[in-house]
């Protein structure tokens, strides 16, 4: 019996040899015969040693697939080639269709191997920057085999749903109207400033990369070998690159390695208000799209009780609603819309001051507005969350009325007693100096300094990471309280009767040593326990030696 042949359907990537996979090269080299469109066969000719090469015209795809099957059934190893990926508007599906027509099954028929390649959406995106970071789709504008009305519907659906869109086959010598019509549909849903990237002949000799906008894209050359990538509502240009952020919500704080939300926190409902509820299977209505309300250039629509939103509105609402810091440090040169994020900070009237003035209350109400929140915390602070595009204006306004501002997160905060409203005020300047020098400093983990103005210690500074107690005109210093868990303990006394002028240098040294050597997320007590020494202070096990009785169980 004659040896059975094999068909490889090979995607050879954008066109240069560096972006072809090893498996694709192997397949081409193992083949007795290469079948493909002539331009493509020429592109890969140097890689193959096949005895026979069949190159055909663009439109003879079916005969190419049939020939491949015939040759393989006669015992040859055949590679059918496509540019990019053979499964994306390529030859893979067609080869299977021809085989199925002949009753082929994997068990009984010739062997078929589909070799994946880098599709144009990926190669073109890489030349533009990172435009397809978020949900993206491909749409071919070729209406040779697909009704135009269906294509138009897909363009509209993708536009409405805020997909990044890669348009394949945007234009040819005879098909010139499709791209004009696609632009018209897109402009109904997206801003004219939406970034658009045009990539022609990616990774080939005549490569051209153009950055433009949805309004102006038709003023540039678009042809058979161009892929058009349309950004979503948050895509922007920066330094000649087209970039789509990873999500609509800034759950990540750029410029910091450690992110404000840990993976398990991200999944909580308050952090993802738009997500599907796992019990009810529904999502909040604020994030529901209404196809008719979705148009960018909205015709007047009949009033509905609660209008649903456009993709852009949903994205903006998402940004506005979520919790998490808004510290976005990228300042793109051209952003099509200002990104609103939640600015979080806490305010208090002062380190040694617990009185609010009417002006401060007015300023608070003003900056928080209708959409923000203020929450009184156990730390004697008011925690603000305010959706805004201009955090600087908020901080300016609050500072004007004398508020002490502190960032949220893993920072140093100083918490103090009320100094008996000034009666025992000798130590206030030291507390204020620590706040001025170290307050808000970013650290491996939250660090609280508790400060007591007298020996009564009514603030209970010894339960903080660093406790400072002013007693008989001198300071006692404690470090490393463990406030939670079954081995919770107070801080270890390390210095007694410290001269006031030595306080700030000592605290600064402790903090600097901890900051330089602690692991990310390692609280001061853990660090102290691990390294056993901070400055010249030796760690002592402060956890209770009392044996904890197991809790009685229910039965
Ligand atoms: N199978 C191919 C797509 C074939 S359809 C793939 O996965 O990439 C042909 C269309 O692909 C072209 O009209 C163009 O839009 C896109 N295309 C293919 N190669 C390209 C390249 N090197 N540069 C830019 N676009 C390309």
List its traits.
single chain; 555 residues; alpha/beta; five-stranded parallel β-sheet; five-stranded mixed β-sheet; 14 helices; 26% helix; elongated; binds S-adenosyl-L-homocysteine
Rounded mean pLDDT score:
84
The number of distinct helices, counting runs of at least 4 residues, comes to 14
Percent of residues in β-strands: 15-25%
Q: Summarize the amount of helix as a percent range.
A: 25-40%
For the biggest sheet, the summary is: 5 strands, parallel
What can you tell me about this protein's structure?
This protein is an alpha/beta fold. It is built from 14 helices and 24 strands. The strands form six sheets. The chain has a five-stranded parallel beta sheet with strand order 3-2-4-1-5, with helices on both faces. A five-stranded mixed beta sheet has the order 7-8-11-9-10, with helices on both faces. β18 (412-416), α12 (428-438) and β19 (447-452) form a beta-alpha-beta unit. It starts with 5 loop residues before the first strand and ends in a 17-residue tail after the last strand. 36% of the residues are buried. The chain binds S-adenosyl-L-homocysteine. Residues 14-15, 82-85, 88-90, 119-120, 124, 168-169, 199-202, 204, 224-227 line the site of S-adenosyl-L-homocysteine.
Give the helices and strands, then pairings.
Blueprint: E1 6-11, H1 22-30, E2 33-37, H2 38-44, E3 52-56, H3 61-73, E4 77-82, H4 92-101, E5 111-115, H5 120-128, E6 129-130, E7 136-140, H6 148-160, E8 164-168, H7 177-189, E9 195-200, E10 208-213, E11 226-230, E12 236-238, E13 241-243, H8 263-266, H9 311-321, E14 341-348, H10 358-368, E15 373-376, E16 382-388, H11 391-400, E17 404-406, E18 412-416, H12 428-438, E19 447-452, E20 466-471, E21 474-479, E22 492-498, H13 500-517, H14 524-531, E23 533-534, E24 537-538
Parallel strand pairs: 1-4, 1-5, 2-3, 2-4, 6-13, 7-8, 18-19, 19-20
Antiparallel strand pairs: 8-11, 9-10, 9-11, 12-13, 14-16, 14-17, 15-16, 20-21, 21-22, 23-24
Helix pairs in contact: 3-4, 6-7, 12-13
The chain binds S-adenosyl-L-homocysteine (SAH).
């Amino acid at each position: 019996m004659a040896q059975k042949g094999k068909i490889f359907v090979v995607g050879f990537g954008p066109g240069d040899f560096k972006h072809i996979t090893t498996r694709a090269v192997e397949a081409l080299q193992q083949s007795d015969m290469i079948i493909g469109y002539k331009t493509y066969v020429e592109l890969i000719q140097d890689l193959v040693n096949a005895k026979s090469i069949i190159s055909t015209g663009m439109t003879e795809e079916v005969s190419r697939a049939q020939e491949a099957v015939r040759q393989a059934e006669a015992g040859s190893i055949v590679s059918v080639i496509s540019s990019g990926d053979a499964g994306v508007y390529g030859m893979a599906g067609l080869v299977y269709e021809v085989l199925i027509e002949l009753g082929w099954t994997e068990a009984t028929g010739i062997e078929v191997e589909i070799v994946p390649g880098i599709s144009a959406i990926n190669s073109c995106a890489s030349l533009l920057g990172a435009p397809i970071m978020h949900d993206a789709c491909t749409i071919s504008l070729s209406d040779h085999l697909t009704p135009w009305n269906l294509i138009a519907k897909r363009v509209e659906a993708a536009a409405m749903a805020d997909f990044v869109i890669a348009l394949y086959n945007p234009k040819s010598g005879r098909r010139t109207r499709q791209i004009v019509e696609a632009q018209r549909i897109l402009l109904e849903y997206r801003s004219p400033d939406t970034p658009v990237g045009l990539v022609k002949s990616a990774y080939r000799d005549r490569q051209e990369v153009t950055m433009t906008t949805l309004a102006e894209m038709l003023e540039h050359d678009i042809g058979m070998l161009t892929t058009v990538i349309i950004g979503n509502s948050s895509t922007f240009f920066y330094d000649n690159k087209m970039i789509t952020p990873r999500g609509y919500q800034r759950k990540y704080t750029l410029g910091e390695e450690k992110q404000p939300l840990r993976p398990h926190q991200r999944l909580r409902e308050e952090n993802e208000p738009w997500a599907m509820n796992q019990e009810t299977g529904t999502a909040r209505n604020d994030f529901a799209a209404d196809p008719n309300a979705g148009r960018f250039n909205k015709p007047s629509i009949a009033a509905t009780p609660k209008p649903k939103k456009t993709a852009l509105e949903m994205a903006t609402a998402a940004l506005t609603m979520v919790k998490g810091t808004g510290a976005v440090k990228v300042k793109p040169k051209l952003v099509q819309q200002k990104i609103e994020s939640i600015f979080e900070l806490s305010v208090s009237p002062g380190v040694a001051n617990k009185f609010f003035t009417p002006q401060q209350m007015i300023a608070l109400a003003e900056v928080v507005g209708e959409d923000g929140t203020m929450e009184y915390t156990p730390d004697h602070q008011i925690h603000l969350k305010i959706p805004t595009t201009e955090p600087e204006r908020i901080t300016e306004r609050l500072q004007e009325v004398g508020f002490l501002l502190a960032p949220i997160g893993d920072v140093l905060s100083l918490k103090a007693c009320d100094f008996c409203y000034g009666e025992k005020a000798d130590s206030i300047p030291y507390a204020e100096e620590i706040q001025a020098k170290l307050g808000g400093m970013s650290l491996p983990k939250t660090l609280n300094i508790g400060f007591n103005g007298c020996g009564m210690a009514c603030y209970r500074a010894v339960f903080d990471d660093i406790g400072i107690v002013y007693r008989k005109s001198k300071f006692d210093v404690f470090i490393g309280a463990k406030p939670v868990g079954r081995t919770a303990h107070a801080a270890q006394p390390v210095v007694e009767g410290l001269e006031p002028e030595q306080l700030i240098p000592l605290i600064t040294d402790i903090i600097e040593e901890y900051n330089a050597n602690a692991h990310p997320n390692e609280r001061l007590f853990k660090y102290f326990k691990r390294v056993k020494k901070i400055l010249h202070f030796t760690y002592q096990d402060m956890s209770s030696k009392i044996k904890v009785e197991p809790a009685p169980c229910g039965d």
